[in-house]
Amino acid sequence: MAKKEKEMPKEQTISYEGKEYKVSVFNEQEIDDFNHSLDLQNKIQRAAFNLRQLNGSAEYYKSKNNKAIKRVNEEKEK
After folding, report:
1. I want to staple 30 with a disulfide (CB 3.0 to 4.6 A). Which of 26, 54, 55, 67 is the partner?
2. What H or E segment, with its residue span, contains residue 38?
3. Which residues contact 34 (CB under 8 A, 6 or more apart)?
């Protein structure tokens, strides 16, 4: 049985604006800045998702409230 060749670990890369860059070309502060930028983009996407979810939930309860008001007004008219 042949020995498996050890795979060389892939060099880490940073993807930025559609291009790949080797992490090794950046200094520690620049890498940290890229990580901050990526984290902020993820937080913005999560916040936008949460806002859509909150707006949908608010509309649902507003609709339920309107039905309750309509029911109360109809009972008053009887």
Report:
1. 26
2. helix 28-77
3. 14, 16, 26
- For 4, the token pair is 């498996």
Mean pLDDT by 10 residues, the chain (78 residues): 68 91 96 95 98 98 97 91
Other beta carbons less than 10 A from residue 30's beta carbon: 13
CB of 21 closer than 8 Å to CB of 14: yes
Sign of CA dihedral 44, 49, 55, 58: negative
- Tokens 């008053």, residue located: 76
Distance (Å, rounded) from C-alpha 33 to C-alpha 38?
9
pTM recorded for the entire structure: 0.66
